[in-house]
Design brief:
The protein has helices spanning about 15-35, 95-100, 110-120, 135-145, 155-160, 195-205; strands at about 10-15, 40-45, 60, 70-85, 105-110, 130-135, 150-155, 165-170, 180-185. It is an alpha/beta fold. The relative contact order is 0.24.
Length: about 210
């Protein structure tokens, strides 16, 4: 399978930002190669493993708890940063946890939430996470409308900057966790040439 054979339909599960980064690139690639493949993107439910379904060909996203039999490949890592509106007063302040904990904080519903809660506990602060979102776009809207802070990986910031959204990012005085970006698939697809092509082309196009 080289991507130019008979059209295939692939079901991909990912989050909203990776979907926006990958979908147009796969479409452009398909047009260039005149392959006419169909890439059906499904929204990632952070709380569940969809790979048990025979309908799902590939998961691309941040590390999550998956079934033991699932095949996993790391395709990159992304540093995490705080984000805020460009006129937010926090940008003029010292970026210590003591200062940042006074602001409303929105985080994604994944391992980043758990790691941030652990960080607050280790520093002796009560939980300061006020909002938990299943996707990154609702976090951005919350930040724009409420003046809250968000924590996101840098690959999210890259998309926001390309779209010229009125949001800026900053690194705090303490270390934030990194996120691991993985591909995951059911073992039944491990040796399938078309699925291997899908895994390799999506990894190359995301370019972590």
């Amino acid at each position: 399978f080289n991507g130019k054979e008979l059209p295939r339909s692939f079901n991909i599960v990912t989050n909203d930002i990776l979907m926006s980064k990958l979908s147009y690139k796969l479409m452009k690639k398909s047009i260039q190669e005149n392959s006419n493949h169909i890439f059906n993107f499904n929204y990632d439910n952070a709380a569940s493993c969809l790979l048990r379904s025979e309908d799902i060909d590939l998961y691309i996203g941040e590390d999550k708890n998956l079934s033991p039999e699932v095949k996993i490949r790391t395709i990159g890592h992304s540093d995490c940063v705080f984000i805020a509106t460009r006129d937010h007063p926090v940008l003029l302040m010292e970026k210590s946890l003591k200062n940042l904990k006074e602001f409303i904080l929105i985080v994604p519903k994944n391992r980043l939430k758990e790691e941030m809660e652990s960080l607050y506990r280790e520093r002796g602060y009560k939980r300061k996470i006020h909002g938990i979102s299943a996707g990154y776009l609702p976090i951005i809207e919350n930040i724009l409308q409420t003046g809250s802070l968000g924590i996101v990986p840098m690959y999210v910031v890259d998309v926001l900057q390309r779209m010229n959204i009125e949001v800026d990012f900053f690194r705090p005085d303490f270390e934030l966790p990194k996120v691991r970006i993985i591909q995951a698939w059911h073992p039944r697809y491990h040796n399938c040439s078309s699925h291997k092509w899908l895994r390799d082309i999506s990894k190359d196009l995301l370019d972590f």
